[in-house]
Amino acid sequence: MKEITSTQNSYVKDLLKLQEKSRERKKTGLFIIEGKREISLAVAANYKFDTILYLEGLISEQEVLHLFNDNVNRIQISKEVYQKLAYRDSTEGIIAVTKSKNFALENIKFEKENPLILVAEGVEKPGNIGALLRTADAANIDAVFIANPKSDVYNANIIRSSVGCVFTNQIAVGTSEEIITFLQDNNIKIYATTLQNSNEYHKENYTEASAIVVGTEANGLTEAFREKATQNINIPMQGKIDSMNVSVAAAIVLFEAKRQRKFKL
Question: Is this structure's pTM higher than 0.90?
């Protein structure tokens, strides 16, 4: 076991780059997780860990060892170093340097014949992506596809806002065209949420293999999804505004699909 007490330590500086820069995460194949719950979910999802940093007093070495299946490299850090590295306001005293997974479409595996998938196209704000992943976990769907991503999945804001659901969902990342091809090749119906040429969402049948596609409030979905959809769908608005937050829209349609599947399939 090692100990780091200085915020000027070169490893600490490297970790700050890892936390802040997508390019650094891609180059090293590493990212940072903060917090007991999030780390526990990553352990359950069979993520591999490079190093664990912890602040004695907030969490003991025994608690650290209890979180992991094997004895990973661990470093005790000072309060100053922890405060420098900690991204969140809450203090649980543990930070994990974790190995990235490959989010290629070809790695997706379905355990049933009628999977339910959420596709998020061009969603820019990390908080919205995190909320979508949290919604997907709540509905216990089969996969989340992120089309034309604006942020990498291991962005600290995505991990935080998803409350660790980055690790509980099966995720794939690709272009809209790649995802459409995958869905068509696997005979998965595409339901695109858009106002153009659309039916009300609750009038469709989602009991077969289905993908619910959502886009941003500002730009909506690209022509690729609008034109290739099995059916465009809309949520009938009852008030003065004509749109809602993307994660709310996704939740409404996903839970209608789950209702139709009697919350079992």
Answer: yes
